[in-house]
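LAB NOTEBOOK - FOLDING QUEUE
OPERATOR: T.R.
BATCH SIZE: 2
PURPOSE: Compare the predicted structure-token outputs for two unrelated chains run back to back under identical settings.
PRIORITY: normal
REVIEWER: second-year student, initials M.K.

ITEM 1
FIELD SEQUENCE / FIELD STRUCTURE:
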Amino acid sequence: MNVRRNHTMKKFIFGCVGLVFVLMLASCEDFLELDPVSNGIAVENVAGDSIVYKTGAEVEAALAGAYADFKNEYYQLDYYVNGDAQSDDAYAGADNPANFQIDDYKIDALNSNVSRDWAYLYAHIGKANSVINNVDKCPDASLSAARRKEIKAEAMFIRAFQYFQLVQLWGDVPLQLTEVRTISAANLEEIYPLLYPPRTPLDMVYQQIISDLETAARGVRVTAPHKGYATKGAVYTLLAKVYATIEPHDYNKVKLYCDSVMALGYSLMPQYDQLWDNSQENCAESIFEINYNGGVSDGNWGAKMFRGLDWKKFNVPSNDLVKTFEQEGDMIRFNSSIVWEDVSGHWTDQHWPQVHYPFINKWRNYTEGSDQNYIIYRLADVILLKAEALNELGDVSGAANLVNQIRARVNLPETPANDQASMRLAIEKERRLELAFEGHRWYDLKRTGRAIEVINNVKGENDIPLGYQLTENRLLWPIPQAELDKNSKLTQNPGY
């Protein structure tokens, strides 16, 4: 047994030495160009120095690096594939087999989107962890105590945001709150469980998310230079979403945090299309928005993934969503959300004719080096979430008032729903039409327990059933096979 153990230890040490060598080479590269580390452990300062950031400027750069990950492939593309193409709002489009699996609820553990999203999210957490754990150790006296608290709070929001993505996609996930700064035979026993962790029970991950957000709420600013930073409004919005998702749902907390957002002075834009015409970025309705300056170094290539005639695009609007807009008579949001073009001679599609083919219309600057911003959270989302909370707490008329506020902006009559059951469906539909293609629909259906019923009854062109066979096991993704192969402590989700 000792011989086998020693052999295993040697293999591990040699592997770690190789990792350190790669990281030492990578340290010559720009901070934001490092490849993601799938286990979320930021390996810092391999020389053993206990001070990771020696100046305030280094701390600020590290926080900027954590914010910059909101511009990686996950948030430029996969965030919307996961939230919209995985729902009844959009078909996968394009020609990517991994996306077809997601669209058809036939994902397997070798799916490339699944493995890369796991890697992106844990790499993002690793960057946030490095800031959280080391900002107070920075010896630079010019970095004030107030700013240190603010930096840590912003990084905690970022970490909580990523963990909320993880638990919605995978359920139980490894909870990593620290980073490894040195690797050697001497600290092998200590770092092994950090590098190869088991899955943490879902309730414990949620406890950490809530703890991070409660701390963040006390430290972040009310306003910032633009909506791309963690502010109290963004933190309260995420808390409301967490309490609407965690089991059992805590609708008193949902209402509390929605009220907290609404008390901060956000307001609906007078016209719905003002949110999407790019004339008023970081507007009064926006709460959290990924900002792009454009060009080679800060362009949003993701917008081009959803619109254009150069190749078949992702997230094609569904027949079912189009029909829902039309049945509701909701032409204002319909025209703001979907645009039609003739794609004859470019490609064919099983769902739509070439001469009348839909594209997402919310991200309208889809040129090379686009400066198109992405709105992640906005007030209408919060208002409808509060309506949901009020309805579940028995205040149907209060919920109706909020729904009608959203409908009035797009010239729709008041909702006919007048009891709790019908109001649930009215709010579900209102969220679908108001927030189409903003990455919310799949998660709304999951957290309300409606995903299986809705998806398995989706119809396509001419009301022909699409034959989806969504099951309870397919509500969560499989743990990536590559992660299982290198970490024997991980277990697979049921059904994979």
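ITEM 2
FIELD SEQUENCE / FIELD STRUCTURE:
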Amino acid sequence: MNTIKLMEVCGTHTMAIVRAGIKKLLPAWIELVSGPGCPVCVTSERDIDAAIDIARQKDVIMTTFGDMMRVPGSTGSFEETKQKGSDIRIVYSVLDALRIAEENPKHKVVFMGVGFETTSPTVASVLKEARARKIKNFSILSNFKLIFPALRTIAGSREVQIDGFICPGHVSVITGSVPYEKIAKRYKKACVITGFEPGDILKGIEKLVRRVRDKNYGVEIEYARAVRKKGNPTAQDVLKEVFTPRGVEWRGLGVIKKSGLKLRNKYKDFDAERIFKVKRRSVLKKKGCICGEILKGLKKPADCKLFGKACTTRHPVGPCMVSSEGTCAAYYRYGK
């Protein structure tokens, strides 16, 4: 039996698959590999360094999601920078960051935005509100990314060689299934959008295997209780109103054209890159950490010499071990 290799794009899928022991239920000829669907993991060291540079400035309050606190840049992490006196706060939504700005009018409050199409529309909505209310001390450091350019890069890679994608359910709630159709057709990759329960994932794998065997390179929605073909037009519209695509660096994948989001000129007064004149420095790759190869689906955590030894969830070396959706963190917690 020829091996069928499927990539789960989303970090939440990776965690669910390993936690539920799904790989142990599959025959040996079905291989699952992880993809670049963890927004924390794919944030480059250069982008983290830029955020830390801003956080170190006087009268700045940096806000971010909890997963970002321990992600290492080349000069340290948010957690280490906070211990040295910088005001860095964990928030649970961008609305919390806006509230902090209102409560601290003498400070410049920055929200470090990471995430895919799931997160960025909510940030766009809050920026519209901040602009309407003329809140002057609030800005966004946009490290948002678009998943489809990354999927095209992987689908077209001779290095990775996968047969199909287990597509992310929550991103697809926003985008719908239509953007996957061009990828499926052009690169001959089967695509199935699934939910996050073990039953959803197993059904998605079954549908993908059938499509690969039949050479039916289309798109199927298994997660029909939440995903529609055209997605959420309202969220798509607010995203387009506030942001515009740009080329950005992905950890492991390099710079991908039109795969990130920057604020449109209409919202330039909320652009932390412009306000703080951000300059991204070149950094040296950490020796030993293979997070980049794992994000491309080329290697697995067990292939890393640091995994479970020098690199653990208590003492992470790379972002794949830091994030709650990181592949290494999933394998470390549940893979044994």
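REVIEWER COMMENT (ITEM 2): The radius of gyration is 20 Å.
FOLLOW-UP: none requested
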